Amino acid sequence: LAIIGAIACGAVSPSRPQRTALFALRATQATPTYDASQWADEPALRIGHGFDIHRMLPYGSDEVNGPVTIGGVAFDDFELGIVAHSDGDVVYHSVVDAIFGALTLPDIGQFFPDTDPRWKGAPSGVFMAEAWRQMDARGYRIGNIDVTLIAQAPRMIVKDHPKAEEGKPYDHKLEMVDNIARLLGCPPSRVNVKARTHEKVDSVGEKRAVSCHVVAVLERKP
Fold this sequence. Notes:
The chain is of the alpha+beta class. The protein has helices spanning about 1-10, 15-30, 90-100, 110, 125-135, 170-185, 200-205, and strands at about 45-60, 70, 75, 80-85, 140-150, 155-160, 170, 190-195, 210-220. It is about 30% helix and about 25% strand.
């Protein structure tokens, strides 16, 4: 203990066994004690993070399960398809995992395993509906959803799109915001969708995959 004390105050440099003993001592000292009743009520806010990534391949590949679908928007005219058990919507999957994480629930793969034929080709709106159900049952609603889509392609802002207003490009992200808000029963102002490329680096940058991060804040319903 005297040696560990000298190490802790920086008087001597620890050996590997001494470092191990010091870390064990600190872990013991850091163990919290609390009255469980103090933690009984649900907190006012819960925060969760979700991540997903899916491969993309040219149509005609046996692994392709349909068009690339992102945030409920199907990119039917894109030359690549998605490789996934369900429809492979990386935004919806990340949102679901963020909500599950905030509620300290198992991940989306445990709720909807890719070994279950029921979810083969399933629209990810089904998973979003379950996330909303779990959230609502616990007495929460969306505080805000922050989505960061990472994709070299397909492009999110497109010129000369059939849905574009005259003289303006069409922004797919706005449609994604509306889709997420509708499925989670919240105003669109509670949802943000950002997008960036991967600077031509790794599988995402080489258009072999698309990925997404989501942070979700849940608030207690009044």
